[in-house]
Amino acid sequence: ILFAILQPQGVLGNDHVVSWEVSRNQSLYREWGHGSTFLVGDTLVISMEDDIARVMSRSEYEACRADGSKTLIYRGGKSIELNTSGSWYFMSRIHDRCKSGEKIMIRVDAGGSMVGRHSLRMGG
């Protein structure tokens, strides 16, 4: 399984492209989320066909519960503007996939976008 993240230089911010599948390494996405820098104005591009959910609390994220009243659903392949600082939680809407590690938590910091291009490939 191949996991690729690309961060091309953008005008308003960087695009962070996440292409994911269920991986044997259940910490793969957690490690990427903690090891990457996200700034207000960046865009998270989820490159998958399944719908994903953005939940508002860490407890919903940890439990793979995407049924809260403030849960936002994104159609597969959508770009999500990271317009506020704080923790953002995303997961597959397919419960078994979320439980298998197909979820990501990122921390978005305030501030201008970093200039540059970064590419990272990880095997699962």
From TrEMBL:
InterPro entries linked to this entry: Cupredoxin, Phytocyanin-like, Phytocyanin_dom
Annotated ranges, domain Phytocyanin: 14-110
Superkingdom classification of source: Eukaryota
Region forming the signal peptide: none
A Gene Ontology molecular function term of the record: electron transfer activity
Cellular component, GO annotation: plasma membrane
Pfam family, one: Cu_bind_like
Protein name: Phytocyanin domain-containing protein
Species annotation: Taxus chinensis (Chinese yew)
Lineage: Eukaryota, Viridiplantae, Streptophyta, Embryophyta, Tracheophyta
